[in-house]
Amino acid sequence: MEAKRVSDSSVVMAQVMTPQDVNIAGNVHGGVIMKLLDTAAGVVAYRHARTNVVTATIDRLDFHHPVYVGDFVTIKAGLNLVGRTSMEIGVQAETENLITGKKRHTASANITMVAIGKDGSPAAVPPLILETDEEKQRNLKALARREARLREMKNK
After folding, report:
1. How far is CA 101 from the centre of its chain?
2. pLDDT (tens digit, 9 = 90+) per residue, 18-63?
3. Which long-range contacts (CB under 8 A, 24 or more apart) does 24-30 make?
């Protein structure tokens, strides 16, 4: 299986928030943002694995600012770490007020996806090529998160 670069699967998605996206408080519902983040992570994982994928974990989904109707939300997603069958994808949402032009970091998370083969069991994925210092740093942090998750599971 041939290794792939982070840039081979990275994605940027964007959309305007509409009235159907709001909660009873009048802000865009956090679940709408969560779905966008998960969708972007899924696209990254599909591009890398070229097979079906499922969400395994969402690590530290942090919301920093509210989102309002009319805001333009951009989601950026890229691989942090690739294991034998799993992939950790870093996702970030940025919101732009189209009237003022003000941009804010809205939310971020690390989402682990698992590749699924035709038989329904986890499938091997290509190794990851890290090219930049930023990619290497993100990979090291992802390795530490993975080790912490494995320790936690072992201690249950």
Report:
1. 25
2. 999 999 998 999 999 999 999 999 999 999 999 999 999 998 899 9
3. 26/68, 27/66, 27/67, 27/68, 28/66, 28/67, 28/68, 28/69, 28/71, 28/73, 30/63
* Closest to 49 measured CA to CA, from 105, 94, 8, 91: 8
Domain assignments of the chain as residue spans, ordered by start: 4-154
Model pLDDT for residues 112-136, shown as the tens digit of each residue: 999 999 999 999 999 999 999 999 9
DSSP, res 85: S
Output the six-digit token pair for 132. 């930049």
Residue 2 CA to residue 103 CA, distance in Å, equals 38
Which residue is listed with tokens 């329904």? 120
Q: How far apart are CA 52 and CA 152, in angstroms?
A: 27
Residues 15 and 64: their CA atoms lie apart, in Å, by 19
How far the first Cα of the chain sits from its last, in Å, is 34
The number of residues in the chain equals 156
Which superfamily does CATH assign the domain made up of 4-154 to? Answer: Hotdog Thioesterase (3.10.129.10)
